[in-house]
Every structure is written in structure tokens, then in C-alpha cells.
Design a protein that fits this description.
The complex is a heterodimer. By secondary structure, chain A is mainly β. Chain A is built from no helices and 11 strands. Chain A is 0% helix and 49% strand. In chain A, strand 5 and strand 6 form a beta hairpin. Chain A starts with a strand and ends with a strand. Chain B is mainly β. Helices cover 0% and strands 53% of the residues of chain B. Chains A and B meet through strand 4, strand 5, strand 9 and strand 10 of A and strand 5 and strand 11 of B.
Chain lengths: 115, 115
């Protein structure tokens, strides 16, 4: 099992550009989430999904879109990048019905810089 | 409102010292999980422990131990005989109603262990 795979690992964008951060998991988890990590602020929830076709906003959703067309994939789209979106982004997945362990598994992170 | 507070921003110890990382949480729910994650300098998030709100038993795993006290809404983490490899940022997190798709993180405590 690869776990949670995020691509790319690093990205530099110019203000106004758009891009998609990819996240895929092979653990058949129902739940997937996106967080951003900023210095001194811990991790904050951007968007989350409890299953294919179902998404909802977290604490800091502005400027980001998500969709969940399959159980495995949960891409995060930046529509028009701004310097305030410079951050490290983590994708997480958790919860398989009937599974004993319900901790969130995290990808390796994507370090995004918007100039 | 739900909240996780890690008041210690940074702790420095010398190898073999014991160190306790504090975590205080706020929630109105009676069913929740508490977690600790480790983020080493390489940046990934490593799961350490999950505690169910109905299970107040303390837990020990090698040099790590956790003290969960509902009366004080605390879930503290102690490392005994610290080692240089313990140097990392440690995050405490809360998931209400066992919803692991929405973790609420503290701001983290950076632990530096000097030889």
C-alpha cells in the first residue's frame, strides 16, 4: 500500500495562476481532507469529504475548490493563486467502515509558494 | 466552540531528560477522539496515539506515555529519557463525534533535544 500520495511535493506559482494539488489514497478510506499548515498556526482544515460526491467547507475554504468523483482521489484546486496561499498543504484520509483504526493518515505534503 | 491549546511553543532539553508536552482541549461533545502527531524535520506527520473520550486510562508505549484527564480537559504527552531523535514538532488534535475527517489541531510544540 502506498497510503496517501500527494503531488507535486514542491510548486512555485505566480499570483493569479491556477493549479491543482493531487491527492490519492489506496486504503479504501471514506473520509478525505485538505489542511494547510502555516507557521505558528498548526494545521487548519480547508475542505473535507465523507465520501464520493460529498464535500464540505472547513475553516479556511476561500480561494479553494474540491471535488470527489472517486473514493480514491480528492484534488484541491487553487482558482487564482494569491501570496496568502503560500503554505504547506497536507491531504489526509481516514475511516473505513468496520475498521478498527480510525486515525487520519497524512500525505507527505506539498510546499506551495506564490510569488 | 471546539479548540485545542498547546501553550508551550518551544521546549529545549538535554538528552535523557524527561519532558512533558501539554495539551488542553475544549469541546461540548461527549464523544470525541484526541490524537498526538509528530512532525520531524523531514515534514511528514506521524501518528502517535488516539484516545477515545470514554477511555481515560493512561497509556505507555516505550518511552512515551500519555495522561488523559477529562476533569481538566487535558491530554498531556510525556517523553522519558529524551533522545535527539525526538526533536520534532508535536501536534495535539481533536475530532468531535469521532469525525476524523475534521481534525482540530493545536498550534504545536517544537521540542529540541540537545546531546
Amino acid at each position: 500500500n502506498a497510503g496517501v500520495t500527494q503531488t507535486p511535493k514542491f510548486q512555485v506559482l505566480k499570483t493569479g495562476q491556477s493549479m491543482t494539488l493531487q491527492c490519492a489514497q489506496d486504503m479504501n478510506h471514506e473520509y478525505m481532507s485538505w489542511y494547510r499548515q502555516d507557521p505558528g498556526m498548526g494545521l487548519r482544515l480547508i475542505h473535507y469529504s465523507v465520501g464520493a460526491g460529498i464535500t464540505d467547507q472547513g475553516e479556511v475554504p476561500n480561494g479553494y475548490n474540491v471535488s470527489r468523483s472517486t473514493t480514491e482521489d480528492f484534488p484541491l484546486r487553487l482558482l487564482s493563486a494569491a501570496p496568502s496561499q503560500t503554505s504547506v498543504y497536507f491531504c489526509a484520509s481516514s475511516y473505513s467502515p468496520g475498521a478498527r483504526n480510525t486515525e487520519a493518515f497524512f500525505g507527505q505534503g506539498t510546499r506551495l509558494t506564490v510569488v | 466552540a471546539q479548540k485545542v491549546t498547546q501553550a508551550q511553543t518551544e521546549i529545549s532539553v538535554v538528552e535523557k531528560e524527561d519532558v512533558t508536552l501539554d495539551c488542553v482541549y475544549e469541546t461540548r461533545d461527549t464523544t470525541y477522539y484526541l490524537f498526538w502527531y509528530k512532525q520531524p524535520p523531514s515534514g511528514e506527520l506521524v501518528f502517535l496515539i488516539r484516545r477515545n473520550s470514554f477511555d481515560e486510562q493512561n497509556e505507555i508505549s516505550g518511552r512515551y506515555s500519555w495522561n488523559f484527564q477529562k476533569s481538566t480537559s487535558s491530554f498531556n504527552f510525556t517523553i522519558t529519557a529524551s533522545q535527539v531523535v525526538d526533536s520534532a514538532v508535536y501536534f495535539c488534535a481533536l475530532s468531535e463525534n469521532y469525525n476524523t475527517d475534521k481534525l482540530i489541531f493545536g498550534t504545536g510544540t517544537r521540542l529540541q533535544v540537545f546531546p
